[in-house]
Design the sequence.
């Protein structure tokens, strides 16, 4: 069955370190998204991609970067982790039009000390 | 003002009860609307899309009021398994998620 996976599921790191969160989907979806979820906030869009070599900034992109070298993967990099980036990160993908259902990965819980 | 606002709840209801809650959105040009369900510490999953004419899916009914810019979700004959956080999602040029309404169904 097609799926979307994230790794690691849990990560503890220190302030200033570079961290990369992996997202891999086997749906063959063109669209991929990274969100963060914090208490009291909805899911907030960090970066998104509509296809290979395409990346776009979301509403909370500062301090994060992504690259899309193939259809299946959209890794999220925190260039220099900050305590404010402690959060739960969800990757999602969708096919076709932007209003199609998004399928979410299981999430990565990141703690920055 | 947040793009999508929801009453966080929690709504605590007994099994078999009906529970309903709303979500307001700020952009009158929003095109599509959805309800997602999120269980504790799990990923969100699509519950249902919301159509202009309103729609039902089993015990769940969704309504859209464009004039007042809100959508609603009603759950009839609540089950214990309905306990979750319900996320209101609105599409304009991107998906905007509400912070969620928590529903707890008790035996």
Sequence:
């Amino acid at each position: 069955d097609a799926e979307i996976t994230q790794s690691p599921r849990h990560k503890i790191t220190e302030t200033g370190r570079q961290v990369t969160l992996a997202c891999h989907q086997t749906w063959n979806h063109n669209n991929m998204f990274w969100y963060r979820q914090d208490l009291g906030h909805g899911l907030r869009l960090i970066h998104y991609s509509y296809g290979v070599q395409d990346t776009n900034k979301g509403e909370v992109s500062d301090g994060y970067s992504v690259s899309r070298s193939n259809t299946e993967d959209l890794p999220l990099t925190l260039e220099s982790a900050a305590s404010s980036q402690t959060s739960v990160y969800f990757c999602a993908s969708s096919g076709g039009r932007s209003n199609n259902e998004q399928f979410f990965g299981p999430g990565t819980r990141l703690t920055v000390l | 003002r947040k793009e999508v606002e929801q009453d966080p709840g929690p709504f605590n209801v007994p099994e078999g009860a009906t529970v309903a809650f709303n979500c307001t959105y700020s952009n009158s040009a929003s095109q599509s609307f959805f309800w997602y369900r999120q269980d504790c510490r799990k990923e969100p999953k699509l519950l249902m899309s919301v159509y202009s004419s309103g729609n039902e899916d089993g015990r769940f009914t969704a309504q859209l009021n464009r004039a007042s810019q809100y959508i609603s979700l009603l759950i009839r004959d609540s089950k214990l398994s309905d306990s979750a956080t319900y996320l209101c999602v609105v599409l304009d040029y991107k998906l905007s998620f509400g912070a969620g309404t928590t529903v707890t169904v008790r035996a």
In short: Chain A has a mean pLDDT of 94. The CA atoms of residues 35 and 44 of chain A lie 5 Å apart.
